Structure formats: structure tokens, C-alpha cells
Amino acid sequence: xxxxxxxxxxxxxxxxxxxxxxxxxxxxxxxxxxxxxxxxxxxxxxxxxxxxxxxxxxxxxxxxxxxxxxxxxxxxxxxxxxxxxxxxxxxxxxxxxxxxxxxxxxxxxxxxxxxxxxxx
Length: 120
What we know:
This protein is mostly helical and 120 residues long. Helix content is 34%, strand content 7%.
């Protein structure tokens, strides 16, 4: 894949191209032996958090499919962790959020104040 002159980059720059790029979603080659080999040693979260592994599974699938561009391998649930909602992937079931309880406030909320010159 040569990104600077790819069909995708030319189209993004509104430059002439011989075809119109299309977007389609697929899971990063989960059926591919190369991906399965990586998954034998690493969890999905480990792959997402390790840039070399994420790049490897992304590029392997993109080159196999012969596409012009690919979005780096990641999981849509990753932002949950930084929001304080830890999760894990249960074998054969998919993602499980560990706690959905609301966090306890760190301080007592104050009463709202109304300015003295508030027009009623």
C-alpha cells in the first residue's frame, strides 16, 4: 500500500481519480490464519493497545483484500476504560462491562444560586 498516491488519498484531496472510493466495514481478517495466530498469543485489548500488533493485523488484512485504505485495528469499547467503566471480553459471549453503577459524588452539590437582579 502506497498511501501518498493511493486512490483514497487522491479522492480525499478532490484530485482526479479513475474510480470513486467506497467505504465498507469488515472485521480485521478474523478468518485469516495470520490474525488467528496473533490472537493465540494476545487478547483483543492487547492488540488494540499495542501499536505494532494493531498495525500488523490491519495491514495484513488490507494487503490481502487489496484495498486502498484501512482504519487501524481498534475496538469501539476502548473509551469506556478511560471513562471509569472497566470491561473484558468473555469467551464466546463478547464484551462485558464490569460495573454499570453510577460513581459516588466526590463532593456535596451546592444549591443553585439566583442572581439578585434576575428578572422574573
